[in-house]
Known about the structure:
The structure is a homodimer. Chain A has helices at 6-24, 32-39, 43-53, 66-76, 92-98, 102-105, 136-143, 154-167, 193-207; strands at 29-30, 64-65, 83-88, 108-115, 124-125, 128-132, 147-150, 171-174, 187-190. Chain A is α/β, with parallel strands linked by helices. In chain A, the strands form two sheets. A seven-stranded mixed β-sheet of chain A has the order 5-6-4-3-7-8-9, with helices on both faces. The termini of chain A are far apart. Chains A and B meet through helix 1, helix 5 and helix 9 of A and helix 1, helix 5 and helix 9 of B. The structure holds a DNA duplex.
Amino acid sequence: xxxxxxxxxxxxxxxxxxxKKLEAEGVKVVxxxxxxKELGYSEEQIRKDLQNVSDRPGRPHKGxxxxxxxxxxxxxxxxxxxxxxxxxxxxHLGAALMNYPNFEEMGLSxxxxxxxxxxxxxxxxxxxxxxxxxxxxxxxxHLDAEIAIICVPAEESQKVVDLAIKAGAKGIxxxxxxxxxxxxSVSLVTTNLAxxxxxxxxxxxxxx
Amino acid sequence: xxxxxxxxxxxxxxxxxxxKKLEAEGVKVVxxxxxxKELGYSEEQIRKDLQNVSDRPGRPHKGxxxxxxxxxxxxxxxxxxxxxxxxxxxxHLGAALMNYPNFEEMGLSxxxxxxxxxxxxxxxxxxxxxxxxxxxxxxxxHLDAEIAIICVPAEESQKVVDLAIKAGAKGIxxxxxxxxxxxxSVSLVTTNLAxxxxxxxxxxxxxx
DNA sequence: TAGATTGTTAATCGATTAACAATC
DNA sequence: TAGATTGTTAATCGATTAACAATC
Lengths: 208, 208
């Protein structure tokens, strides 16, 4: 079975975005040297990445068909099937993500939110209800969701993750800035803003 | 000179968060096997990471002083000095990040926002003004900022990044889901939600 | 055909992991 | 002292890069 490294997986959406731009500009065929130049990766890496998801070879002297490549990447990334997610924590960040227009085209549909703040419960974000966290276990089975997106403070993240997994969540997307533990059967991705900032600050300091 | 890999830099804020939790619980000393168990990294890796930032050795049989380690990490990460940033794009995500309470304690201060939407210009987020994008060049020198945070749609990201760099931005934190090009003298970090989602979706599919 | 680009195989590089002597 | 944990040095692993023959 083919395996994909984390770094590699992260590159595919960037390729896809670029290819869609090319398609919109009317470009029909793309080569890896061309992509390499524009995206800042090496051409060998791009070739290898594309070979890994594509079942048909590129054409020497020309490259690859842009449209076919877009379709390949979209289905590989799951953009053509819908996955349902639930937002836990409807604060600024949680609400902003519910309003993020790109998730739908990536096949991710946020169907509801949960919060403990009485002022928020009963309200809506983008037409999706905000429920009370205390109803989580009862409501989860009806929502048909696979993923829980965690936008609560660090102090509560492990607690709500445990709850979500107990209810049946198979994937956790954590935006809280701390480490959380999950069983092996559950997929976890953490988007840690503090980690990103650390990389940026360090790079700035090195250049000074 | 010491060098730090990107992965390594990303771990430091996670260590710090955990150590602060320990300190709040009254724990005085921590060992790498203890951290390894809790955070899911190997103890060798944690030892190496901590050795890399710390100028004083740990104590065999005991470990390291929690408080000293926190201070070391905070100054390494720049949490004890203030860096100013400007938000470009005051939509849902941009506004949410301006409201994110943790940046201040990480030494990042967002001093103003820019947008092209007439309905937003002149308003405020958390007491910070939203200016017109057309005033960007004029206002930048007065803001004393180093970093531009990019929260505009993919179609406009390269354009506003070019503007920011021309005005004098030394660091770019990009939240748009596409690749952007910057000169070598500028630091760039991209927080790409599409990339994170790709890793999560793939992991979910593999487990099915 | 010549030349550009592909796919494959080998070499390099860097990060993580393992091994182990030193130390409190 | 014995035992746990450290720091250092070597081995492993995996990803990226380089080299090159195959092909349109």
